[in-house]
Amino acid sequence: KGISKKKKDRMVFDEKANDWKPRWGYNKASKDDDLPPILEVAPNADPSVDPFEKKTNEKKERLQKQKNREKRNE
After folding, report:
1. What are phi and psi of 14, to 5 degrees?
2. Reduced to 3 DSSP states, what percent helix, strand and coil does the chain have, rounded to the nearest 5?
3. Which of 5, 29, 50, 68 is geometrically suited to a Cys-Cys bond with 14, CB 3.0 to 4.6 A?
4. Closest Cα to residue 38, out of 56, 58, 52, 49?
5. Count of H-run helices and E-run strands, the chain
6. Can you tell me the distance from the alpha carbon of 29 to that of 18, in angstroms, rounded to the nearest whole number?
7. What's the pTM value of the predicted model, to 2 decimals?
8. Rounded distance, CA 6 to CA 27, Å?
9. Per-residue pLDDT tens over the stretch 39-49
10. Distance of CA 45 to the CA centre of its chain
C-alpha cells in the first residue's frame, strides 16, 4: 500500500547553533530559549516594570532556590 516504516535519526542539524544536536533529551535541537514576543500583563500592573526582565528574574530565583534545596539534601 505504499506505507513504509522510516526510522528517525537521533541527531539533527540545529540551524541556530550551526551544529548537530540530539532530536530529543538534554540539549535538544528544538529547544527555544527565546522569550515569547507577547506577554499578557494585568491591567493593574506597574507600568514602570519590564515584564520580560521580571520573568527572567523570577526564573533565576527559582533556580537558586532549587540549588539551595539540593545542597541542604546532601
Report:
1. -95, 115
2. 30, 10, 60
3. 29
4. 52
5. 1, 2
6. 10
7. 0.50
8. 24
9. 888 899 898 99
10. 25
